[in-house]
Design goal:
Oligomer: heterodimer
CATH architecture of chain A: Orthogonal Bundle
Mean pLDDT of chain A: 93
Largest sheet of chain A: 2 strands, antiparallel
Structural class of chain B: alpha+beta
Largest interface: A-B, 18 and 8 residues
CATH superfamily of chain A: Ammonium transporter AmtB like domains
Order of helices and strands of chain B: EEHEEEEHE
Helix content of chain B: 10-25%
Radius of gyration of chain A: 23 Å
Number of domains of chain A: 1
CATH topology of chain A: Ammonium transporter fold
Number of domains of chain B: 1
Strand order of the largest sheet of chain A: 1-2
Structural class of chain A: mainly alpha
Low-confidence stretches of chain A: 18-25
Number of strands of chain A: 4
Number of strands of chain B: 7
Distance between the termini of chain B: 28 Å
Radius of gyration of chain B: 18 Å
Order of helices and strands of chain A: HHHEEEEHHHHHHHHHHHH
CATH class of chain B: Alpha Beta
């Protein structure tokens, strides 16, 4: 913006006038909006509910009786571990300006996050500078603590999803270390690439509203690598490993569904129309996906199963995640059906064809669902939803956007896959990853935790 | 596996010497004792219990078990993984009676538990060497 040129005679008057005019947007402290803040506080709670007890119940309901507690313990403990890791360094690596690949260490131990608090209240909203010329900053209308907490709940659920791949057989100690390290060196960097304005994927124009790549493809491929490195469960696939309590799984899936409104609509970081659209397409896609899986199973296997309906819903939730702030209801139905049928095929046919033991279909649902959603976002994106002052046309769908999405998907697959493999191998040669065969037969609840349920 | 065990007393029975529990006891007849073990379909439990009460059966023990005979199991499918489940839920009733009651009790169980379909169950009769009532110390016949 340029100041208008004035003659000397009016300089003093002009200065006085300018002082009375509200400062230019660049100079004013970013304003807080209590409506947005209230919604984001609520969203944070909803997303945490997705992990505890949503995911905990969803997964625990699908394992055998002897592993129920251990499976719930994984979600619960990951929540605790990642909270601390995020606070210590994860948030700083993800959401400070830094460079294109990771943030800096200015927010280690959340140092400085209270800098703008005066008389108990934040005086300015959180703005994440891009640090790059001509690239817009990420401006919010909420306090940084709220943004940090909201993102923490995402950082928590992502590694918790991976646990579905190594259910029934991973050592608790190895899991704890794996999750702490993975969160720091895999999750935080990828979050930075996609969501920080300085991140390379964000600058490239990869669209991921609430975490299709950052959360689901990331966790999905990490889960696949875990399943391959840890190997199959003892007795798989001949032994009966039927779910012990599908009622838990349905309750868990329902909590995931409702909590996901915080996940997707909350990613608007505002209580506005975009959040409303995100919530709408989330619901529609999820319902379509649940029906898609259900009918696909009904036709191919003869009975519509409860596990199938719940799994289809989760698949839809996963697929609509990257698209939720970018697509309209019409596109969301297509995304939902594609995810429902696609993930049904991946979890039932692909898995058995290729023979890997992804116990709870972490890759089949989150990996494949995330890929379907991320790619279809490139197809169905509706420009005006992502338009800004700096970019009035937004990011509409099309071949160009689809290509950008492919790049985002591929880089996530490669980085997460490779880094997960490295972390696992280091743990494998040091403390070991799997419990022994007898321990696995006896059950993790007794062996790892000394407790039993039922 | 924890087995839930329930015991029944016939109505109008007051343990401790009075009432119909010990009425008309001729302990000389009750030297030979048998344990009748019946495996039946779970929904037939109440019918069998109602059939045994009028015969003077003093009590019985019930456990929930699994088993198979000629009745085939079913196929369960979870996300494409198919499992043949051959064990079906059944109920096992164990009742200890004097030898001269065995025929009547067996007949009553058969009448009550029969559905004319495969999977109705079986009855086994075992010898009981000794019996004792824990509270009073009564043995053998008086303990039944």
């Amino acid at each position: 913006m340029t100041r208008p040129r004035l003659s000397w005679g009016l300089c003093a008057l002009a200065t006085a006038m300018l002082a009375a005019v509200p400062a230019f947007a660049d100079d004013a402290p970013p304003k807080l909006d209590s409506g947005d803040t209230a919604w984001m506080l609520a969203s944070t709670a909803l997303v945490l509910l997705m992990t505890i007890p949503g995911l905990a119940l969803f997964y625990a309901g699908m394992v055998r009786k002897k592993n129920i507690l251990a499976t719930m313990m994984q979600s619960f403990t990951i929540c605790c571990i990642v909270t601390i890791v995020w606070m210590v360094a994860g948030y700083s690596i993800a959401f400070t300006t830094g460079n294109a690949y990771m943030g800096n260490f200015s927010r280690i131990m959340l140092h400085g996050i209270a800098d703008h608090i005066v008389k108990g209240n934040d005086t300015q909203a959180f703005v994440l500078a891009s640090g790059v010329k001509d690239v817009a900053d990420m401006a919010t209308t909420i306090p940084e603590t709220v943004y940090m907490m909201f993102q923490m709940t995402f950082a928590i659920i992502t590694p918790a999803l991976i646990a579905g791949a190594f259910a029934d057989r991973m050592k608790f100690s190895a899991m704890c270390i794996f999750m702490a390290v993975w969160s720091l060196i895999v999750y935080s960097p990828i979050a930075h690439w996609v969501w920080a304005p300085s991140g390379w994927a964000s600058q490239l124009g990869v669209l991921d509203f609430a975490g299709g790549t950052v959360v689901h493809i990331n966790a999905g491929v990490a889960g696949l690598v875990c399943a391959l490195v840890l190997g199959k469960r003892e007795g798989y696939p001949a032994t009966n490993m039927a779910p012990y309590n599908l009622a838990y799984a349905v309750i868990g899936a329902s909590l995931l569904w409702v909590g996901w409104f915080g996940f997707n609509a909350g990613s608007a970081v505002a209580a506005n129309g975009r959040a409303g659209m995100a919530m709408s397409v989330t619901q529609i896609a999820t319902a379509a996906a649940a029906l898609g899986w259900m009918f696909a199973e009904w036709i191919s296997k003869g009975k519509p199963s409860v596990l199938g309906a719940a799994s289809g819903a989760v698949a839809g939730l996963v697929a609509i995640t990257p698209a939720s702030g970018f697509v309209l209801p019409g596109g969301s139905i297509v995304i939902g059906v594609a995810a429902g049928v696609g993930c049904f095929w991946a979890a039932t046919s692909l898995k058995h064809m290729l023979g890997y033991d992804d116990s709870l279909d972490c890759f089949g649902v989150h990996g494949i669902g995330g890929i379907i959603g991320a790619l279809l976002t490139g197809v169905f994106a509706y420009g005006p939803l992502s338009a800004t002052d700096a970019s009035p046309d937004g990011s509409p769908g099309g071949l160009a956007q689809l290509w950008l999405q492919c790049q985002g998907v591929a880089s996530t697959l490669v980085y997460s896959g490779v880094m997960t493999f490295i972390i696992l191998m280091v743990l494998k040669v040091t403390i070991g990853l799997r419990v022994s065969e007898e321990e696995e037969r006896e059950g993790l609840d007794i062996v790892l935790h000394g407790e039993q349920v039922f | 596996m924890i087995v839930e065990v329930r015991t029944f007393d016939p109505p109008n029975c007051t343990r401790g010497g009075k009432g119909t529990c010990d009425a008309n006891l001729d302990t000389t007849r009750w030297k030979i004792m048998k344990l009748i073990m019946a495996i039946i379909k779970p929904f037939k439990l109440d019918d069998v219990r109602d059939a045994l009460t009028p015969l003077g059966v003093q009590g019985l023990t019930v456990s929930e078990v699994k088993g198979f005979g000629r009745q085939k199991g079913q196929t369960e499918i979870y996300r494409g993984a198919e499992y043949q489940v051959s064990f079906l839920p059944k109920v096992k009733i164990e009742v200890a009676v004097a030898d001269d009651m065995v025929d009547a009790v067996m007949e009553a169980i058969v009448k009550a538990a029969n559905t004319d379909k495969i999977g109705d169950g079986k009855i086994f009769v075992l010898n009981v060497e000794r019996a004792l009532r824990i509270r009073t110390g009564e043995t053998d016949a008086a303990a039944l």
